Amino acid sequence: xxxxxxxxxxxxxxxxxxxxxxxxxxxxxxxxxxxxxxxxxxxxxxxxxxxxxxxxxxxxxxxxxxxxxxxxxxxxxxxxxxxxxxxxxxxxxxxxxxxxxxxxxxxxxxxxxxxxxxxxxxxxxxxxxxxxxxxx
Length: 136
What we know:
Blueprint: H1 7-10, H2 17-25, E1 29-33, E2 46-52, E3 56-63, E4 69-74, H3 81-87, E5 92-97, E6 103-106, E7 118-123, E8 128-134
Antiparallel strand pairs: 1-2, 2-3, 3-6, 4-5, 4-7, 7-8
């Protein structure tokens, strides 16, 4: 038998308020994750503010804990697993997400955030939509 640890037990600490403020102050766009999306439920959700900048994306809020979360930028607003799968080829993977009480991830230099309109959190292991927010 293997040992399984819950993702929340292995999550790194949330970023400091100072670090999140720095990302927020340098953001080009802001958006809000809400629980009331069609594909969200009590186990798959996000709520809080997202700050999208050329070099980093920060999130101040809470994500339902889970394994193998990925942050994507999408040119189309999506809110279900089916929509994610339908539009995945047009999306850009940004970074893995492993903190559930806020995060800061680097945006690769090759990504132009202006070409997208929506930030999406997706659980790769289970093919589950977690949350999305339209920023432009």
